[in-house]
Amino acid sequence: MFCRYFCLFGLCLFLLTQRRCSLGHVSSSRSGDTTSLPGFANLTMGYNKYLRPYFGGQPVQIAMSLDIASISSVSESDMDYTATIYLRQRWTDPRLVFHGNKSFTLDARLVELLWVPDTYIVESKRSFLHDVTVGNRLIRLFSNGTILYALRITTTVACNMDLSKYPMDTQTCRLQLESWGYDENDVTFIWLRGNDSVHGIEKLRLSQYTVESYYTLVSKSQQETGSYPRLILQFELRRNVLYFILETYVPSTLLVMLSWVSFWITLDSVPARTCIGVTTVLSMTTLMIGSRSSLSKTNCFIKAIDVYLGICFSFIFGALVEYAVAHYSSSQKCAAKASQKGLASDPAKEMEEVNIANILNSSLTSYKQKITFSSIEISSDNSNCSDLTMKTREKIKCVLRNKIHKIIGYFTIQNPSNIDHYSKLLFPLFFMLVNVFYWAYYLYF
Questions:
Q1: Which residues pair with 232 in a beta bridge?
Q2: Is the four-CA dihedral 400, 403, 405, 407 of positive or negative sign?
Q3: Buried b / exposed e across 45-82, counting CB within 10 Å, b at 16+?
Q4: Residues near 410 by Cβ (< 8 Å), separated by ≥ 6?
Q5: Quick one: how far is CA 345 from the chain centroid?
Q6: Which of 61, 46, 146 is nearest to 98 (CA)?
Q7: 256 within 8 A of 431, measured Cβ to Cβ
Q8: CA 437 remoteness from chain centre
């Protein structure tokens, strides 16, 4: 009986010893894990990722920096640009302080266990994080509790453009970072090193643009729900105009010069001059349609290139109209000469003309005293306005009538061949003057 109780006591003692050894082994393994990952004991002992650092106290300061990897496209039709950026955010969380001077780069999947800012890109149309071969995120923990959180983002951002000076325009675009839910009482944003916080943008090579300048701003966004911190990167893009000069400006100018060739062709060469005029008009129309088709969604803008093409089209059309006027005047003059020769060769018609003239002269002489001033207004240009018997009002009207006749005489085409002679000088002169004003306005104003 005694032996039986003694055996049971020994078995219980053995089981208690094994239990204590296993608990001691688990405790030592946990202690070893805490030593190998300093500070991460806080993640399992009271750390709440849903509460920001300094919760209920001072706001968290988020310092940011950017690397612009590329700006792949700038779309005038959609008024946006697509950029790939490396966004780096730094803040201090006192709950993650540990002893030592080391920093640890952690697996990006651990971001799910930490509090991170709710930063978003203002005016972003489409954005995504790169995830090949793994999510392109970085978390680095420093001994003083500072966290570095880096992301690789490709985003398409709206950019309001003024295309009135296209293609000699300079566009100002922005990349704005703002807190979504935390207002300025909870979070503040700053640039880590001012303008030096942005890298890579000065090295970009774009197809149509050159980066003129860029600078950083710190601002606030006033919303109905509060005032939110905002960081702004503003940069200016100047369009490279050389392509458009070779593609549009030079061909349109050459078409205008081609239309002037018709001035050196005689008026009798109707097929040659008509062919040149119609061909240049159609070519210019095709060039105008081609230039507008590249910006189909921005046709509501009157752009600088549209103004220049309109000027060129006006000069080309004017050259065609000039030939029509000159040819019509020449044909009318030839018809008048032919009629005069016909009258001179027919004595009967000549006598008839003389008789009619004598009848009209006798009628005018008989009613000379009854002619009113209104009939005087349609008389010849050589009216004598120095008659002392005329009243002052009548003299003024007589002088004005003579001036009007002289002005009309200036515009009367006496010799149709002079039209081409003047056009050879006036068309190139006016075209050069218009070009001077055009380029001066759009380049310097």
A1: 176, 217
A2: negative
A3: eebeeeebbeeeeebbebbbbbbbbebeebebebbbbb
A4: none
A5: 72
A6: 146
A7: yes
A8: 22
User: What stretches of 84-191 show up as alpha helix (H) in DSSP?
Assistant: none
Report H helices in 242-269.
242-244, 250-259
User: Which residues, 6 or more positions from 182, have their beta carbon under 8 angstroms from its beta carbon?
Assistant: 52, 60, 117, 118, 228
**Measured between alpha carbons, how far is 310 from 252 in angstroms, rounded to an integer?**
10
User: At what angle are helices 304-345 and 250-259 packed, to 10 degrees?
Assistant: 10
Q: For the stretch 202-219, what's the b/e string if a residue is b when 16 or more beta carbons lie within 10 angstroms of its beta carbon?
A: eebebeebebeebebeee
DSSP conformation class of 107 = P
Q: H/E element holding 373? A: helix 373-376
Q: Domains of the chain, with CATH numbers?
A: 48-239 (2.70.170.10), 241-331+397-444 (1.20.58.390)
Give the whole-angstrom CA distance, residue 114 versus residue 410.
89
**Rounded to an integer, what distance in angstroms lies between the CA atom of residue 113 and that of residue 342?**
111
Here the tokens at position 39 are 């500070």
The pLDDT tens digits along the chain (445 residues) read: 444 444 444 544 444 444 444 333 333 333 333 333 445 555 556 788 899 999 989 999 999 999 999 998 899 888 999 999 999 999 999 988 887 778 888 888 888 889 999 999 999 999 999 988 888 999 999 988 899 999 999 999 999 999 999 999 999 999 999 999 999 999 999 999 989 999 999 889 898 899 999 999 999 999 999 999 999 999 999 999 999 999 999 999 999 999 999 999 988 888 999 999 999 999 999 999 988 887 766 667 789 999 999 999 999 999 999 999 888 888 877 777 777 666 555 554 444 444 544 544 554 455 444 444 344 443 444 456 665 566 677 777 777 887 887 776 666 666 767 888 889 999 999 999 999 999 999 998 8
The partner residues of 150 in beta bridges, in order of sequence, read 88, 138
